[in-house]
Design brief:
globular
Length: 275
Amino acid sequence: MWRHSWFRTLIGAVSLLLAPVPPAVAQEQVDVALVLAVDVSRSMSTEELQIQRRGYAAAISSPEVIRAIGMGVNGRIALMMFEWANENHAREIVPWSIIETQPDARAFADRILADTTFGQRRTSISGAIRHASALLADVPYKASRLVIDISGDGPNNQGTPVTLERDAALARGHVINGLPLMTRGGVGFQFNIPDLDDYYRHCVTGGPASFVLPVVEWAQFPDAVRRKLILEIGGWIPVGPAPVIPAQITFGPPYDCMVGEKIWQRLRRQYFWDP
C-alpha cells in the first residue's frame, strides 16, 4: 500500500513538471509614462486652482496632443495625475491610463473635471518628486521614457531638500520637467520669488532633454500645458525663441536651492507661526 501511494505521488509530481506553463502576460508597450504632478498649495486662489484643472483637461484632450501621441512608435502613452502640496499630501486624481485615441483622452479629461480641488498648506516639491518617482518605478506598462511633469507657484519650503529628491529620481532614469507658475496675486504671495523659472531650472528639473516652461499669466496656462505635453510625448528638445528653457544649467554663480525654506523660517519668526 505504501509503495502504491509513493508511486502515485511521484507520477503526480512528474505530471506537474511536464505540464505546459501559461505564458506570462506581457506589459503593454507605450512611448512614454508621464506623471502629472499638480500643485494645489494655498498660495493659489480657488479660481486659479480651477483654471489649472480646466487647462490640463483642455490640453490633454486637444487634437494637437492626440496627433503627437499618434506620431509615436507605439502610438500610445501612459498617463496619470495627482495633486500635491505639503509633504504628506499627494492625492490621486486619475490613475494610470492608456491614452491612444480621442475618446481615451476625453475620458481622462472628464475625470479631471469631475473631481474637486481643495487647497492645502505648505509646498513640498521634494515630496511631490519622491511620490512621482515611486509611481514611475511601479508603472504597469513598459515605457521607453519615464517623465515627471511638475507644476508649482513657489519654491520648496517643507520636507527633504528638493535637490536630494531630484537627484534620486534622476539616478533612477527619470526625467523631470517644470511648469513654474510665475503669476501674481494669490493668498500666498509672500512665498513667491521673482526668478521661479531659474529656481526650477537649477533645483527641480533634470534628465535628458528636460526643460522649464514658465507661465507668467493664467491666460497662457492651457497653451503652455498643451505645448509641454507635446514636447514630453515626442521627447523633443525645445528650440526657437519661445520661452522654453533647457534645464540643469551648470555654469554661472551657485543658486540657493534652500531659498523657500529660508523664506518660511523668516516669516515664521516674523509672525510667530507654529512649526
